[in-house]
Amino acid sequence: xxxxxxxxxxxxxxxxxxxxxxxxxxxxxxxxxxxxxxxxxxxxxxxxxxxxxxxxxxxxxxxxxxxxxxxxxxxxxxxxxxxxxxxxxxxxxxxxxxxxxxxxxxxxxxxxxxxxxxxxxxxxxxxxxxxxxxxxxxxxxxxxxxxxxxxxxxxxxxxxxxxxxxxxxxxxxxxxxxxxxxxxxxxxxxxxxxxxxxxxxxxxxxxxxxxxxxxxxxxxxxxxxxxxxxxxxxxxxxxxxxxxxxxxxxxxxxxxxxxxxxxx
Length: 264
Description:
A hairpin with a 2-residue loop joins strand 4 and strand 5. The chain has one domain: Rossmann fold (3-Layer(aba) Sandwich), CATH 3.40.50.300. The chain is globular and about 55 Å long. It is of the alpha/beta class. The chain is built from 9 helices and 12 strands.
């Protein structure tokens, strides 16, 4: 199944996306569950990043449409879209001589108008975003002087400062050590539960997706293999179809979360 059970604001309807004459997504329909943390899983080249960019309105469609609140994405201005959807790409870029605080401040751009002064609210939102991602102590540091993990957390802080209701994150735990991976994933889950955010994130770790996500969408070769709750999706048959692996599914004795033990 590919339909979400519950309210839906963002939806892909039979979209087809391709590059250089080759389709990457094939008539794919996907309803993003609102107020939930959705993890996109699948092997390399399965179309996860392409789907994320299509949902953000950044990829031309060969067929179908993506709608937000019932409106086709092209009907919305870029500023209006940025107020509602925030995308963190897989390899974001910024000058190395930009300070962390200045990078985070760029997240406020959609909410500011020409000649509007920087407000106390803007600063408070930026400060809170840096605190949540544990980069508040790095505010004056230049991006070029950060480790890969510190830089990744600064980018996530900028994404949070955008204050969009829908966050689309492409591999948000890249470059992070295991402790910071868990911190960021726990933060995303709290943003959903405490602030009512809707989050879609590309992840590679099946067990992280099972533990932190409310909803999992499995992709392979541009099509959805299965979509549903972690308990429904983390099953040997689904993982075999998507990843061509054999897996034993255990359950954490502490909280019952499914745990995948994979083998070829």
